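User: Teach me something about this protein's shape.
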Amino acid sequence: MFLAINIGNANIQVAAYAGETMLFRSQLRTDPLETADEYAIGLRSLLVLYGVPVGELEGAVLSCVAPALAGTLRQAVGLLREVRVLTVGPGLKTGLNIRIDNPAELGADLVACAVAAQERCSLPCVVISFDTALTVMGLDARGSLIGGCISPGVRLSLGALHTHAAQLPQIDLAQQPASVAGTSTVASMEAGLILGNACMLDGLIDRFAELFGQAPAVIATGELAGQITRNCRRAITVDETLLTDGLAMIWRRNQR
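Assistant: First, the predicted structure itself:
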């Protein structure tokens, strides 16, 4: 059994796998002030909660967009059991050909998503990740990652509106907009954030189709992926486990 852990800006995704079978997937809160001991307690609690014996832990693979926490989580896993811990980055076999100016700039979480998309989608394809940033990446007909787009994530955009526009409130993004023509402040914000992002994704997918010379398959993951993509006119598959499954694939590709 091994752990696949993604350290994000807001939360830490944790999934346990036995071979190719996912045993559970959960998350912890990202807190840069927590110690390795505290994260070890959190990881152990998840294993106990889902009935997975700590003694079966054989290793872990990490992806991280908060570099200061990578070492802390490595230590936390080591406190549970002395096992091999891989960190996604240069030198690790992923099977992904990254054709951007500086491959080291590509977030480890996006690498994992692209690795899983290679296996699950027909090519070419577009991979959408809903996180602090909204990232749209293209994989060409050979499965090479050729680049992508980065824009503010939906919650980040909402936070900016609430912070910088005095009369705009925080709203519940779980609500579906009734119409593009919102008849109240809240309804108008729902339409702008949810339908606006859906329209942006449709437009970006169209641009990738022009780039590829054919309509790509499209897969999306992350918080609010379902909420936004159900309002898109383009067909988009939502895969909630794409990131941790990609990490699991990288783990298996790097076993001695």
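Now, about its shape. The CA atoms of residues 36 and 71 lie 9 Å apart. Residues 103-246 form a domain with the Nucleotidyltransferase; domain 5 fold (CATH 3.30.420.40). If you'd like, I can walk through any region in more detail.
User: That's plenty for now, thanks!
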